[in-house]
């Protein structure tokens, strides 16, 4: 990843749009609540099935799959993207096949199946190229970049993030520009370049606000809150930003984003030494992640909870055993950066070196 990112002269134009809402659902806003998307999508899907319109069935099925995924209803999302793909294949619609594969790959990453995510997203990018759909190709490459980023493989995907940022700006795609800015910002934050990270998160928030992309704006506020907490120790500003973002998450029924918001609130409180509050918020985040079977968020919330409990007097041996288990879980998922966080937590809490053997048994 390069050390600087050009943030001047963005060519973003107009309002954000949701290209995954297609066909009869094309009028839906990027800010539509997910329950609204799901209800509308199922209604139009049934109508298209009754009319025998395979292309429309595939396109409506994509929106249904994405609504289920973002609501944390992963089994239903899995069935929906596969049904969309099969219908698109039967209709000979390569572009719709690509979108379904993108949805499936994104769901696989959400569920912690990173090898499957890579495979499906590569297939989606290839299908998008064959079908001449530059948007789904871009989204699929972005999915590959994000999968590498959450694994901590910054060197491999940093250049791809910046390439996708340049392409999004060139095409004036606000939503994709925001995504890329946030991804690059997160890598800078995780490597200690806090000033650069903050500038990028702030640009992402401003771009999202201008484009009326509330989802992207909420994620950007979370990033800003993280940086001002870790860099400046500004607890109250961080909590205010997270509260603003939480409103958007609740309005749009963004289950995953809300759980990550709660986890970040726990981080901010923990850094401030407010361990009882942090424990309670981490527990709430953990409940949210478990409800949607989201292993990465589950593991990270458990880590925060374990650290908070240790600060509140939990037995050191119990803390060490849980951290060792978490290390195994994160190894199994393939999250290198998060695994390093466990080792640092053990050192910080004075319970290292962690025991070996039997780790990673899961929760």
TrEMBL record:
Gene3D superfamilies: Tetratricopeptide repeat domain (1.25.40.10)
Keywords: Repeat, TPR repeat
Domain of life: Bacteria
Alphabetized InterPro entries for the sequence: TPR-like_helical_dom_sf (IPR011990), TPR_2 (IPR013105)
SUPFAM superfamilies from the UniProt entry: TPR-like
Pfam families linked: TPR_12, TPR_2
Protein name, entry field: Tetratricopeptide repeat protein
Organism: Streptomyces roseolilacinus
Native organism taxonomy: Bacteria, Bacillati, Actinomycetota, Actinomycetes, Kitasatosporales
């Amino acid at each position: 990843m390069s050390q600087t990112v050009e943030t001047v002269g963005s060519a973003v134009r107009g309002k954000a749009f949701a290209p995954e809402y297609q066909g009869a659902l094309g009028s839906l806003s990027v800010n539509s609540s997910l329950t609204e998307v799901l209800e509308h999508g199922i209604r139009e899907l049934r109508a298209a099935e009754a009319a025998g319109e395979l292309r429309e069935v595939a396109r409506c099925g994509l929106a249904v799959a994405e609504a289920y995924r973002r609501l944390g209803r992963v089994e239903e999302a899995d069935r929906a993207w596969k049904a969309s793909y099969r219908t698109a294949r039967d209709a000979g619609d390569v572009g719709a096949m690509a979108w379904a594969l993108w949805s499936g790959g994104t769901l696989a990453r959400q569920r912690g199946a990173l090898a499957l995510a890579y495979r499906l997203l590569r297939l989606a990018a290839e299908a998008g190229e064959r079908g001449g759909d530059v948007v789904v190709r871009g989204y699929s490459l972005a999915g590959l970049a994000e999968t590498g980023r959450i694994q901590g493989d910054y060197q491999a995907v940093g250049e791809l993030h910046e390439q996708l940022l340049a392409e999004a700006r060139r095409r004036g795609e606000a939503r994709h520009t925001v995504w890329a800015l946030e991804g690059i910002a997160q890598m800078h934050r995780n490597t200690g370049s806090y000033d650069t990270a903050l500038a990028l998160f702030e640009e992402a928030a401003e771009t999202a606000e201008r484009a009326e992309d509330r989802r992207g704006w909420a994620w950007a506020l979370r990033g800003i809150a993280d940086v001002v907490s870790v860099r400046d120790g500004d607890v109250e500003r961080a909590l205010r930003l997270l509260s603003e973002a939480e409103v958007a998450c609740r309005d749009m029924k963004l289950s995953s984003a809300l759980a990550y918001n709660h986890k970040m609130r726990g981080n901010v409180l923990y850094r401030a030494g407010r361990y009882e509050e942090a424990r309670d918020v981490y527990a709430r985040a953990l409940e949210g992640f478990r409800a949607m079977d989201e292993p990465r968020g589950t593991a990270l919330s458990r880590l925060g909870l374990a650290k908070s409990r240790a600060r509140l007097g939990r037995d050191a041996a119990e803390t060490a055993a849980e951290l060792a288990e978490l290390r195994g879980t994160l190894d199994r998922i393939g999250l290198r950066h998060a695994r390093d966080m466990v080792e640092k937590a053990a050192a910080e809490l004075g319970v290292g070196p962690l025991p070996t053997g039997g780790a990673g048994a899961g929760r």
